[in-house]
Design a protein that fits this description.
319 residues, alpha/beta, 2-enoyl-CoA Hydratase, Chain A, domain 1
């Protein structure tokens, strides 16, 4: 696999590149064919060993992998006739959030998600997937539009967090996020949220109040980034690896804490290694959950959503 890599992926990728070189040169040379078979078995074993013992910090890195599929990659593979809708009708169109109407499984759907860029120019346009208030207000507008036409909402979560710049604060970043939470908890249509990469802080939660919360196997979901947590707790951002270990931010942790409803298995080595396979697995899960949610009466849907979030959290009382 060409392109950007993570440090713990490098030994695997070096082997795979060597295999490709040998394949180009092998012809009918039996020794080369035998060597290729041996290296392929070694690469496969190394891949399994590496991903069987990922640390929380490595999983954070994997959730941020620059080759990982983003919202529009899934929209392209999962939906038909997607029509992107722009602007918050108040200030601007924030391209860190994309959304629009489409068909999924021959049924209308409103899809909304964070969008990162693949290169410097695109990341500047997308603000590295960190929305400003107008992005969240666009999302709110699209959710209310979906409710008006009785269309379910699907959100893709993949952001380091809401943009903390002065302009964003001046335009009401906290209020925009809070308003989204208010709107989503009472929205009278089914909502499914999928954490596809990095779910960071309130910037992620603003698209995360849903009837079903799904997470990809190597995604993370946390109240704060490990770097931010380390800077606050230890006054040292270099302790991010320690913070990742205590934040319980991995998909399996979030499922264990009964916040996520399902963890969707990724292809061996991560979603970026086979986007089409990942999309098919996600499509199957989405179809199943949408079918179940569509069958519920509105009052039952809203009551279950409310109870879902009331049950979250663990606490104890001391006398």
């Amino acid at each position: 696999m060409d392109g950007p890599t993570l440090e713990f992926e490098r030994p695997i990728l070096d082997l795979e590149r060597k295999i490709e070189e040998l394949k180009r040169a092998r012809g009918s040379d039996r020794k080369l064919i035998a060597e290729i078979d041996r290296l392929e078995a070694k690469a496969s074993s190394l891949l399994d060993q590496t991903f069987a013992k990922l640390t929380p910090w490595q999983q954070v890195q994997l959730s941020r992998h620059p080759a990982r599929p983003y919202t529009l990659d899934y929209v392209e593979r999962l939906t038909e006739e997607f029509v992107e809708l722009h602007g918050d009708r108040a200030f601007a169109d924030d391209e860190a959030i994309v959304g629009g109407l489409c068909y999924f499984d021959h049924q209308p759907l409103m899809v909304i998600g964070h969008q990162k860029g693949r290169n410097t120019k695109e990341n500047m346009r997308r603000n590295f997937g960190m929305p400003r208030p107008e992005g969240y207000r666009k999302a709110k507008r699209l959710m209310e539009l979906a409710e008006r036409f009785n269309v379910p909402v699907l959100t893709f979560i993949d952001t380091p967090g809401a943009y903390p710049g002065i302009g964003a604060e001046e335009r009401g970043q906290a209020e925009a996020i809070a308003k989204n939470l208010e709107v989503m908890i009472r929205l009278e249509v089914p909502i499914i949220a999928v954490v596809i990469g990095e779910g960071g802080s309130g910037g992620a939660l603003a698209l995360g109040v849903a009837d079903r919360i799904l997470m990809l196997q190597y995604s993370v979901y946390s109240v704060i980034s490990p770097e931010g947590c380390a800077s606050i707790l230890w006054k040292d951002g270099s302790k991010a690896e320690d913070a990742a270990r205590v934040l319980n931010l991995r998909a399996q942790d979030i499922k264990r804490l009964e916040i996520a409803d399902e963890v969707i298995e990724e292809p061996r080595g991560g979603a970026h290694r086979d986007v089409d396979v990942m999309a098919r697995r996600l499509q199957s899960a989405l179809a199943r959950h949408l079918s179940a949610l569509r069958a519920l009466d509105t009052e039952v849907l809203l009551a279950q959503r409310y109870e879902k979030f009331r049950r979250m959290g663990v606490w104890s009382e001391r006398t």
